[in-house]
Amino acid sequence: MSYLKPGFSHPHHQQNNLGLYRKDYEGALSTLCAGCGHDSVSAAIVQACFEADVEPHRVAKLSGIGCSSKTPNYFLNHAHGFNSVHGRMPSVATGACMANRELIYVGVSGDGDTASIGMGQFAHVARRNLNMVYLVENNGCYGLTKGQDSATTDMGSVSKAGRASPFESIDLVALALQLGATYVARGFSGDKEQLVPLIRGALAHRGFAFIDIISPCVTFNNNPGSTKGYEYVREHMQAVGQADFIPVREEVTASYEPGCSVEVALHDGSVCLNKIDPELDISDRASALRLLDSYKERGEILTGLLHVDRDSEDLHDTLETADRPLRDLSEQDLCPGQVALDSINQSCR
Amino acid sequence: MKTISALNDFVVRFANVNGTGSASANNLFAKAIFRMGIPVSPKNIFPSNIQGLPTWYEVRISESGYTGRRGGVDMVVCVNPQSLPEDIASVEPGGFFLYDNSKPLHDEHHRDDIHYLGIPLTSICLREYTDPRQRLLFKNVIYVGALAALLDIEFPVLTGLIEDQFKGKEKLQAPNVHALELGYSYAREHFDCPLPIRVERRDSIGERILVDGNTATGLGAIYGGATLAAWYPITPSTSVVEAFEKYCNRLRIDPGTGKKNFAVVQAEDELSAMGMAIGGGWNGARAFTATSGPGISLMSEFLGLAYFAEVPAVLVDVQRAGPSTGMPTRTQQSDILACAYASHGDTRHPLLIPSSPQECFEFMAQAFDLAEQLQTPVILLSDLDLGMNDHLSEPLQWHEGRKFRRGKVLDHDQLEALEEPFGRYLDVDGDGIPQRTLPGTHPTRGAFFTRGTSRDEYARYTEKSDAYVKNMDRLTRKWQTARTMVPASRLQESAVATSLGVLFFGTSRESTLEAVDQLAAENIYLDCLQLMAFPFDDIAERFIESHSIVFVVEQNRDGQMRSLIMNELNAAPEKLVPVLNYDGYPITARFVADAIAVKLSREPQGETVGKKVVGKVVGGAL
């Protein structure tokens, strides 16, 4: 890079409850195109982790391959990152999470990385309800190879080269709902007000938290006729409700009309309030799926928090693994010794 | 007519229908010989099928302790009409053919150089049992009873085994003993018992155990400290993880909470299984997966990542006959090159090659040490014969107080004490192995970005050629370090000085050593080298240098180990003479001895064809 990130920050910047500044949550300077939606998502992750008092080094950042998968380098410098192979981040995250249940796992993927090559792993990490945050930065194209259609390119959406996509697109939110994801939302990189609380909710959720984030590719898919460009998304986006993430220690000041709000207590004791479409029952997958369909028929993009199952068992619960991280177990915990071996030997005589 | 006569030295082959319960009866037979103190070696030759196809169980009995396959069969026990013609053909002249004569044998099946022993197994079962399932199951036990009389197996040994097998299910003991008696008394009444081939109690087993390699591998993972097994079912590796889980459920339950000090995750495919093992290794757990050839193909991309990003992981490859789906239930050593160089780009992976269950146990435990010390995937290269068949093995041993070698992992205080910035890929002490840190260790020090792209010594992305080359050269240096850490080759020198050598590895060991003894009896002397690992050590290099001809015995078509030796040790191709068996059955001593003898009798040079030499040497020399 020919330029560097400034090392100073404003003296009046606020500290969070850990005494950390926002810049303590930042990462390396982005090498993505100027105006890329993904950079806004990285900024939202930074903001959400800062607000949630997450210890940066207690996060593990994982990704696959693609523009989106480069972004873990651009937030949380003090967290370990793992940029793995294309479409295979979920399996690496699964192994990592099994090794140490105490860290926060944030996976960043893209539409190619998740809806095409990584479809299998995405499906299975969702149905196993791995305790992780899984973000898809969905720009409807392959940016790093210069703009080919992806599996989430909407049918009829026109590429920069002027060709309309002839294939049905995959809606990852609908898929996540069907596969059993226990926290499902859609956001837009251009709407930080909505996105930051969604990420905070995902961080607080125990289980598989999935957010499909429409994140326009300014270089290859921001042209007229594209359904993933900034202008189109702004015009067609409908929020199912305004989600606020409010830690328990803060007084709830937001006021919503009676009958239009719901409280969802998450595992860290925080509360997520939603002013929702009256049609949506946040605990009912089917209602979310119905709503997705009806918005799609109207040509609108449904965003917001669509489903939470806060009482689900995550993979550690299901497997009944020890409370201590497996990676911290010692010889004494793991090695049964010669006496046990003698008895096994005897059974083989 | 000639009659084979042998005491404690013969081969019995059972021909059954898959899925009829024959496995436990045949196992009973082999175990009885074992408990009579006589070395025994059973081989299960089974189809890729759950029910209905032919399956065989070949038991070698050898007082001299030869436990590889010999070649040839002295007695066939045939309870499968489908395979009857080939089973009759397989008997050595002078041998015995025991069959179900409930229906008469057609004349076309008559050979006048073997002995027929007809027992009406089906008729006896129809008379004794009404339940169709019992008729099927007890037929097998009845022929074992008959064999007890025919071969002089001590009857109390069999009843003792029945008691052990049905401990806690005492009701089942009496019917099984009854079935044994039915066969026993029929044989006593109708044949001159015992036959000229028979067994007699010895004390030649010592402390040894009879166990399959996959069970030992699973136990090695437990003792080696594995906490995560990620896997996808595939024959013949499935029982590795099954054994791991079974014994973990006994040995790894936290006494305080009742929770599990391990995790077993069944993945959606082999790619995912490998990814999970790598994710676990990256995050500090000892993690492994087990697969066979098709899985190796699928895991190759991930293996390249783990090699380049330097992430520990253990992979068990229980090899089967390839290519592609190949013969999924037959054995081969044909993944050597695929494993040694798995993945695109310049890659190399350490291979550990056990030849007995005890070595499966030891090497599996050691694989976790090596993977963490070297920060790279380590592959345990087993095969179907070793993994799924019972083998006579030294007992499994664990030195109390043995510590896991976790390699260069910096903890919080070590990071705190660092005076220089932490460099993940910095060679701080010249052995090519850098230091690593685990996620969550320190609030501000030691974090880095793991990636499959090129990076500098501080894990920063770079496309600079000199940084790339420096890193690749450090990986070569690390490989040289690995050379001194893997299990050493084993040398066995001939009593008579010779310039001939034979090199082998894995399950070719027993048959090759037997062949070497046979050849010595014909004044052909060979020094022996057993390769235990890749990279090859100095012992292997010197062995090849110091012999004018080295026979390389392998169970594949293309001489893969020979290629690897040529490539890695720059050995002259003309001195490495391939001896190749690739028919899917475990290699036999007869094949190895014949192949070497033929080569030495100045036959035109070329590759020895991988077919067994049938009927050339008369079996049961006693």
Task: Describe the structure in brief.
The complex is a heterodimer of chains A (349) and B (622). Chain A is α/β, with parallel strands linked by helices and 349 residues long.
- How many domains of chain B? The number is 4
CATH class of chain A: Alpha Beta
Q: What is the global morphology of chain A?
A: globular
- The whole-angstrom Rg of chain B is 27 Å
Strand order of the largest sheet of chain A: 2-1-3-4-8-7-13-9
Q: Determine the N-to-C terminus distance of chain B.
A: 17 Å
CATH hierarchy, class of the largest domain in chain B = Alpha Beta
Strand order of the largest sheet of chain B: 11-10-12-13-15-14-21
Helix content of chain B: 25-40%
**CATH topology type of chain A:** Rossmann fold
Protein name (chain A): 2-oxoacid:ferredoxin oxidoreductase subunit beta
Keywords (chain A): Oxidoreductase
InterPro entries (chain A): 2-oxoacid:Fd_oxidoreductase (IPR051457), THDP-binding (IPR029061), TPP_enzyme_TPP-bd (IPR011766)
Organism (chain A): Biformimicrobium ophioploci
Give your account of this protein's structure.
Chain A: It holds the Pfam family TPP_enzyme_C. Chain A: This is 2-oxoacid:ferredoxin oxidoreductase subunit beta. Chain A: It comes from Biformimicrobium ophioploci. The complex is a heterodimer of chains A (349) and B (622). Chain A has 349 residues and is α/β, with parallel strands linked by helices. Chain A is built from 12 helices and 13 strands. Chain A has one domain (22-323): Thiamin diphosphate (ThDP)-binding fold, Pyr/PP domains (Rossmann fold), CATH 3.40.50. Chain A has helices at 37-51, 67-70, 89-99, 111-115, 119-127, 172-179, 192-204, 230-236, 285-297, 315-319, 331-334, 337-347, and strands spanning 59-63, 80-83, 104-110, 132-138, 141-142, 148-149, 183-188, 208-214, 237-239, 241-246, 261-265, 271-276, 301-308. In chain A, α1 packs across α7. The model of chain A has no long low-confidence stretch (mean pLDDT 91). Chain B is of the alpha/beta class and 622 residues long. Chain B has a 7-stranded mixed beta sheet with strand order 11-10-12-13-15-14-21, with helices on both faces. In chain B, α4 (132-151) crosses α6, α9 packs parallel to α10 (293-309) and α16 crosses α19. The longest helix of chain B is centred in the first third of the chain and has 20 residues, at 132-151. Residues 603-622 of chain B have low confidence and may be disordered. Chains A and B meet through β2, α3, α5, α10 and α11 of A and β9, α7, β11, α9 and α10 of B. β2 of chain A pairs parallel with β17 (449-451) of chain B, so a sheet runs across the interface.
